[in-house]
Design a protein that fits this description.
Elements lengths: L20 H16 L4 H13 L3 E2 H8 L3 H13 L3 E4 L8 E4 L3 H33 L4 H27 L7 H6 L9
Antiparallel strand pairs: 1-3, 2-3
Helix pairs in contact: 1-2, 2-4, 3-4, 5-6
Length: about 190
């Protein structure tokens, strides 16, 4: 299983000659986490640099500090803006666009969960509703129907839990264990 481990393979770290060692370590760490979450590592690098610097940076600044091409910085900055994790700001006496990092971590988390996890769980729930409908139409045996209903209840619970979290930033999965545990069926013996 691929996960986050501290410098398990330092050869995976990107060398940032323009940065101090501490900054490069932090940027690589955030890049690995962002990549683990399914985004591109450079998105994490750019956001982390903006966050650490705490001041507006131009696309040319990002390009120079991270060793990225102009095109890469353009795509990354558009993506970061679209996700609401970086914002374009006007710097007096400058005609070029500058960016700053979003610093409200809970707001960033909320946006990502809503855009990715919640939409996935809703799609799964809708597919399970369809599966249950077609299983009933085909008069599938009751034990299998019960299993599909259990999966659908779990998807409903996950949808509700994520929606509640997005509204309150409080997550409760205390009932999840019971949803798939007691189906009343026993596994066939081998």
């Amino acid at each position: 299983m691929h996960g986050y481990t501290y410098r398990d393979s330092p050869e995976d770290d990107i060398d940032f000659p323009a940065l101090d060692r501490w900054e490069a370590l932090a940027i690589n760490a955030v890049g690995r986490v962002i990549e683990f979450w399914g985004f591109k590592r450079n998105h994490g690098h750019a956001w982390c640099l903006l966050y650490l610097r705490g001041e507006p940076m131009s696309a040319a600044d990002l390009q120079r500090e991270l060793g990225l091409s102009k095109g890469a910085v353009s795509m990354i900055s558009r993506d970061l803006e679209a996700w609401g994790v970086a914002h374009r700001v006007q710097v007096p006496q400058s005609k070029v666009r500058h960016f700053v990092a979003e610093v409200d971590f809970l707001q960033m988390l909320r946006r990502v969960i809503q855009a990715r996890e919640l939409s996935l769980v809703v799609r799964v729930r809708d597919d399970l509703k369809d599966a249950l409908y077609f299983a009933r139409e085909q008069e599938v045996d009751p034990a299998r129907l019960k299993r599909v209903r259990g999966m659908l209840r779990l998807a409903d619970m996950m949808t509700d839990a994520l929606s509640f979290f997005l509204k309150t930033l409080h997550l409760d999965f205390s009932e999840a264990d019971d949803l798939l545990e007691d189906t009343g069926d026993t596994a066939p013996s081998a």
